[in-house]
Amino acid sequence: MSKPLSIAVAGLGTVGTGVLKLLATNADLVAARAGRRIIVGAVSARSRNRDRGVPLDAVRWYDDPVALAQDPGTDVVVELIGGSEGPARALVEAALAAGKPVVTANKALLAIHGAAIAELAEARGIPLAFEAAVAGGIPAIKGLREGLAANRIQRVAGILNGTCNYILTVMREQGREFAEVLAEAQALGYAEADPSFDIDGVDAAHKLAILAALAFGRPVDFAAVHVEGIRAVTALDIALAGELGYRIKLLGIASSTEAGISARVHPCMVPVAAPIARVDGVFNAVVAEGDFVGRVVLEGRGAGAGPTASAVVADLIDLARGRHTPVWGAASGALDSAPAVPMDRHRGAYYLRLMVLDRPGVIADVTGILRDESISLEAMLQRGRAPGEAVPVVLTTHDCEEAAMRNALSRIGALDSVLEKPALIRIEPI
Amino acid sequence: MSKPLSIAVAGLGTVGTGVLKLLATNADLVAARAGRRIIVGAVSARSRNRDRGVPLDAVRWYDDPVALAQDPGTDVVVELIGGSEGPARALVEAALAAGKPVVTANKALLAIHGAAIAELAEARGIPLAFEAAVAGGIPAIKGLREGLAANRIQRVAGILNGTCNYILTVMREQGREFAEVLAEAQALGYAEADPSFDIDGVDAAHKLAILAALAFGRPVDFAAVHVEGIRAVTALDIALAGELGYRIKLLGIASSTEAGISARVHPCMVPVAAPIARVDGVFNAVVAEGDFVGRVVLEGRGAGAGPTASAVVADLIDLARGRHTPVWGAASGALDSAPAVPMDRHRGAYYLRLMVLDRPGVIADVTGILRDESISLEAMLQRGRAPGEAVPVVLTTHDCEEAAMRNALSRIGALDSVLEKPALIRIEPI
Fold it and tell me: Which residue of A has its CA nearest to B214?
């Protein structure tokens, strides 16, 4: 067996500790599959004293991650600090500059600075691996970039944030409102104290930007991703979705159209029969559609120490075996340059839910506005009757353009018989 | 870009033609992802004249596949003839002997002669790739052997035969009997004229034997797989399964237990809530459980020209990029040698359906026999009452040993109040 692969791990939080535990627990099995032992030679973390349940006395400690990147005995640098700036970014850049392969779980860093970092890695011919950055333990990056490499990918979509999926699942199962379920999720540790990164869709958008780059063979472009979170989803809309045969999921969807590449993260109504509609709780799923393979669905745990460590060590085994793939699946000269399609140009079907004053003429006003914007109705239902009082009215449309729907929505919202900000959820025939 | 990868394709049936079409349709995309062009330099097929919709005038034709394997201009040999013996086997052995990497979709060959072929490939240090041999377009082999490589796999299971899954799905949806649905499937081309290979579970067992070898890092061992097909599944049992909250699927299941490795293919009752219960029609699914990653589910099209070609070309792209993996995931010296566990030693829960004469004492006789074999009942239900006539009686058990259940079954079948061969289906808490 060849000489051991000596790694340096920066960041010993949940994930970093999980990686050390996995390498200790499955040392022989990992060695057999990697063709050599993988040993932790150096680490960098805030506290040296915290007990992490794994022996660290033999390893070289660094307070400065950048110094860790230059550790002469290190073959591969593993970045598990997190965050798009600061020490994580400095460490990755320093490691590549020092000619050391990098394994990272950092989706924020890759989404925002991935294009430049990939150029640096390619220019120096150094592997950069990041299976753990998307969908945790699901081999989504390997599956898409290698497993489906023979296909022209038309679309990649997924449930990419376990916190949002957990909240939406509990809201549906228990008929409860967002704020209440979020507070409970925070108490249970399923949501951060500051949850905005998850519930506003930013984390899912980071992952989608990476998936889109791999699916379509282009540098990552986070700025082009349209992002909406789940704060505005109500128990009423989840219940109405059920009546209409849909489930509400926060999806990231990237598709290749004649006009270019569209990438968006927002709540969607998906048919209850779609495989992705059944992916509940903290589970993630990635759906890819290729011209020869058809639709492939990958499902599993999207977060947590174990699944993330599984992905990080899978990357290390690839490196130990000398299995390399260009960051975006192809050399920079062969990357795709299709333009990004703005959200205004998106075409799709919509669910619109209004709270209106139950009096004659309201529906005529609303449907008149939709007609003016050449939006054709698929269905309309008013829940209950309460003359002079507020009642919910649901409208679903055939495919129309987002810009037209936005115009209609602002005019409808301005009607004095419309009592609340209208709820809009896009319908995805996924 | 490096020099093209010149491949020789043996077998130009549905799959072979699909591979040529994919390489022609996605030539530029494949070249970008492979880092070089992949060109078809030589072919071998029965008829030279058949129009396959792809130009073949420029390629070198061979009538003898073994001669094709020695074609001096060939970098990689692609075996798409099929069958565990004859020309397919001779071609693969000749190619490896000639030092040429092999890509094959041949599950029968790998299941039956894979151990010896893998040794030959390893001894000569030549890559042998076979993503297309299991679950068609689903990147199951790459996902398991590379994507989950950091995990100790406890279990791998799957819906591995689209024909059986299609037949069982139609039987359930339309409440029809096996023979009738099979005949229809044959008319539609979903089942072969001689369907035994599929419906008797042999094809699924070939694929399971390969998955088990990859999951547990051991040479493939088809002889150790217990195989039952779906001929005995009735519309009545499918309906009763539904009442009990189950669906009947033909599953291949390989698990690692204290006693060793158990591998079996047979109809199973799976909880309707399990992801795999919703995989219907010709779709396949593979479920893997790892100690760190937890459960991962991969779903997609398990057969057909497009999905199979997608998998074959993914292997070619790996080879073009120089990405290699030992056949069973580890070098022969590091392979696992746990014993195979015979089916008699299997422990699980059972569904038993009898047609009995509706008269006093019958249930007492049956339950007495189960007690004698120390099998404890979970539930018992008799459908309807018809004194003196035949009525179905369903019993479900707690976990017990297969051998005990077999003894009980033969004694129960011998009771004169039991009018038909009892139906037995294993319950899997997958």
Answer: A33
DSSP designation for B191? S
The answer for A 277-306 residues in CB contact with B (under 8 A) is 278, 290-301, 306
From chain B residues 5-24, the ones with a CB under 8 A of any chain A CB are 18, 22
Taking alpha carbons only, the member of B363, B371, B382 closest to residue B407 is B371
Tens digits of per-residue pLDDT, A235-263? 999 999 999 999 999 999 999 999 999 99
Beta strands in B182-314 (DSSP E): 225-227, 246-257, 260-271, 283-290, 294-301
pLDDT recorded at residue B1: 60
Residues of chain A positioned with their CB less than 8 A from the CB of B317 = 146, 149-150
Q: What is the ipTM of this complex?
A: 0.96
pLDDT tens-digit readout, A201-235: 999 999 999 999 999 999 999 999 999 999 999 99
In A27-172, the DSSP E strands lie at: 38-44, 60-62, 76-79, 102-104, 128-129, 153-159
Least confident of A372-386, B312-326, B343-357: A372-386
CB-based contact A360:A389 (threshold 8 Å) = no
How confident is the model over B157-183, as pLDDT tens digits? 999 999 999 999 999 999 999 999 999
Which pLDDT band holds residue B49 (cuts at 50, 70, 90)?
confident
Q: Is any Cβ of chain B less than 8 angstroms from the Cβ of A31?
A: yes
Across the A/B interface, how many CB contacts are shorter than 8 Å?
211
A323 contacts chain B (CB < 8 A)? yes
Distances (CA, A) of B303 to A182, B163, B192, B283, B289: 43, 9, 13, 8, 24
Which strands form B38-44's sheet, in the order they lie side by side? B60-62, B38-44, B5-10, B76-79, B102-104, B128-129
Closest Cα in chain B, distance from residue A230 (Å):
25
CA A120 to chain centre: 24
The CA R_g of chain A, rounded to the nearest whole Å, is 24
- B139 → closest Cβ in A147, A307, A310: A147
Distance CA B336, CA A318 (A): 21
**DSSP summary character for residue A263:** E
Residue A368 has pLDDT above 90, yes or no: yes
What is the SS3 assignment for B413?
helix
User: Which residue among A35, A150, A326 places its CB closest to the CB of B314?
Assistant: A150
Digit-coded pLDDT (tens) for B110-141 = 999 999 999 999 999 999 999 999 999 999 99
Active-site annotation of B, residues: 207
